[in-house]
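Instructor's aside before we start: the two examples that follow are unrelated to each other. I chose them only because their records fit on one page, so don't look for a connection. First example below.
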Amino acid sequence: MRHVVGVIAGIALLFAQLGPVAGQPMIPDDPAQQESGPKSSGASAKIPIAMPNSAEVLGGEAATAAEPATDARFAPKPISLEQPIDPDHYICGPGDVFELDFWGQQNFRMPITADLEGRAFISRVGFVAVGGKTLTQVRKEVQRKVRGDYPGLQFELTLVTPRTFLVHVVDNVKHPGSYPAHPLERVSVVLASAGDVTGSRRRIAIHHRTGGDATADLVLYELTGDTSYDPYVLDGDVISVPFAQVTVAITGAVHRPGSYELIKTKDLAELLDLAGGFTSTVARSLPIRIVRRDAQDRAVAIEAPFDGATTPNHELRDLDQVDVHSTDELQRSVLLIGAFVGADPLDPATTSRRLPYVEGDTVLSLVNRAGGIRAPGDLHRSYISRPRAEGPPELIPIDLEALLVKRDFAADRSILMNDTIVIPPMQYSVLVEGAVARAGLYPFNPQFGITQYIAHAGGRTRFARDLDEVKLIDWSGKTHDFQEGMKLSPGDAILVPERDFSRAEIVQLVLAGAGLVLSGVAVAIAATR
């Protein structure tokens, strides 16, 4: 048996040295031999077919029985696709990995990589320029050049792995710099790698290395899903995020309350379109309110008339605040101001909350419906402000300590529509004002009287009136004349009035000042002698 195997091996070696079997194309293993072998002329001549290696399987049925091993360098990397690649729009460039597949008399594939100059080398054909061309254009060019060198075979060029390149992100982003990307990534993906966008998200400029420019609007992309607002990136793109220009906030009866940058008409129509339009609860009989800072940096309210049918064409400016009223503001309600749970801040010291009015409401029922009172609320200084037909509103005191702490329900009060319940913040200090050395707020001390607080403020100045003319204004706003042993409460104020000089006193002061000047002059003259 060993002699038989040796004879078969010798015959195989002899055939290998003599050349290919008649009728079968020559398949050289050496790439250099592929390029240097002679070509026969004539339409019926057999052309040597270049193969990646001699392990490729020939023939129709045999090709399905054993597939050639794929080179690890050309193994496709997993890439997330939102849709199949469009060959009419995909721009090829250096680093793209292609595959040229042949079938027919022989089945084999040829991996091709575009070099750093944007050229792809094809065995027996040479270099083909692919950089800057669409995939469709590259396919046509390859078909034109390959057809004559590989007759009798069908072939197709496919993109296996897209290239990776650098994109530059500059200006108003958290981490400017260069970031790797591939042609199937969009601007939003690259910006996410650069951290938060601190500038405009609607006027993002993309400058292409080839000289063209594009713009990304990530706000419209996120609102509509239209990918034309979030274009693909290309090799060497420079993505610049400028400053936001006109940013306006909108609240109230709109679908998407928030802050938006306006870049087109910069009016209410554009803002409402970004905010999703009105909700079904919009109050069509109330104007749209615009709060704007004037030249003196004061907040000024502007009412834009709204008839419910057409959006008012009102121009907006940077940092404007727009409030679209809802039908809740037309309903009967009661306003709660002060230390209520869930109240919205009006300013650093005041909060407010509006609750629907129900027939039979009392102070206790409204406090319970609001969720209670937050500390530090002043239970002794609370009151109801009730509007009158004419004149200032009526102020009705409420003893919330008796009602809420001692549970004395006799202290409860009935509430009418449009009433306002006020629970002022607790005061822990006493104010000293007027002719004192250091006017200001001082911590409340139950052991202190008026004279101690004045001494704590540095004492009265030489222009202060006598102590018996000092006034005490208590936390309720009432004014009291000075008396020895007066008790003070948190929130009280002490006023030390200044003296009103008479004409005689003014003359005396002038003469005294002149005398001091003359004395100084005399001393100076005496010193020079």
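Example two begins here.
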Amino acid sequence: MIAPDPKLLCKQAESYYYDFLHKETIQLIPEPIVSHINHCATCKEQVNQLRAVLIKSEEHLESDQKEVSSAVTELLKLHFAYIGKPVTCDIVKPFLLGLLDTALEIRIPTPITIHLDNCRQCSEDLETIRRLNLSHRQLYRLSQLFADETSKDKVNCLQARAAILSVVFMRLHETNADVLRHLCICPGCQKALYDYRESVRSDLLLNRSDQKEFPCEQVSATDIFDYVVPYGLNPAKDQYAKFRGSLTSHLVTCPTCLAKMQQLHNTVYGIVEQTESGVVTLYHIDESAKAKAVCETEELYAGFPIRAEVMEQKDEVKDEQPAPAFNIASALKGKVSTINRKLTVKTIATVAAVILIGFALLLNITSAKAVTIDQICKAIEKVKNVHITKFVPDKTEPAQEQWVSRALNIYMTKTAEQCVFWDIANGVTKIKHLDTGAVETTRLSAENITGIEKKMSGSLGLIPFYDIFDIPADAEWGHANKASLEVDETIEAYDLMWIDRKYINLVVFKRWRVFVDPKTNLPQRTEFYQKLATDSEYSLKSAKMIEYLSDSEMQEVIEEVSF
């Protein structure tokens, strides 16, 4: 009788190490393999090494950064599910939007990214979407659209087409989420919607009337996206609808802006309906590839234990066979983990978690128990009334005071010379000259209303960027040194630091410091600093004090101004 080769058994056992560590899956392992692992010193050592890494990964995921880590883990898990499997354009399409999200940035080669490296069509689609400068929420909804299963449609074409008129005239509150979804996933209804909007635009061109002054050139893809791609919207819960009234009333009567909407329609749904390019990629785990790449620095994936294969779709494609075994400890310390060739769902999650440990810095994941900028922005979005006082160096009096009431739909500013009150609901602005007490009342222009509505629905100017996703990818976020600051113990201080290259020879280093109440994640004070490359220290440029008011307190402020 020929005894089994121990080395061969080790290779076979390697793909069961993860399942061996869990009671619910160990019973699925063939008995000869379980017996071998229990008696093989080499396998026992590697199982212990894996156990130690998993414990560390679980500790990492249990931190206060679990929300961010989980998102990246899920993304990596989905990417690495395609190890050894053919990746086509249709598979990559739903991943495009996640690759544009700076909070989920991936800087290691995955089965999805190597397809983008080798498929011109997919890389061009990625750049097309990037140029739209969509918000995080819009990118998320678009990725959901790309991955949607049309077989689960709850609405028929007849029901959806009855709502086309409401959608074209941007009265989304007359529809519902299911109808909007159907209009986005049904090619026939997409075309009907496009044709109806085009007929409206043509009528406006034939019967063009004088338009009120409106900055059409400033209308961006972000502004019109929700009305072109209403996928994922629930009109019944749109808290910002009242802030877009002036924009939509202009859009439905402007052939120029409707043309922009038609162009965006063609761009987005062109990608949705686009056929395969014919490029198929395979991502193989191969430790020898890592060793080879060390010597060949020109290789795109130098230093990674992977091998990429590119072929045409007509070629025969087979799933990868188990690769030769290699030392698990070194693989886990490397850039890609290869614990299991067949990759069960749990194993894929483990691979993603392990990668997170090694790449936490690259992914800009903040330290445990830290408040993130995203949490601050989400808290600001829920604010109803706020009073912001801005100071500049060498001045004891405020440079400007600002009151914003989303509850009352008003916006007010005050300087040493005047107080300006924007009444959005009534479409007027009042200017009170503080030296004389005289009040001027004028009608708000469409441009004024659009600008004010944008300020009221954004971050209120409390962060140095209009949108969190405008923050440079290489910006640094972390705790400020409280030892040198006069700040209450209950308040936490953070610094956001980045480099602004204004011109070729002018580099400005910037720092935004925010003092946050960790119970509410709301900023209490902010400070903005900057320095040139020739400066040794940062200089303070401005500071803001923030006070959150009730509706009654806000009303009292307005009455005191006596407009």
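The first helix runs from residue 6 to 14.
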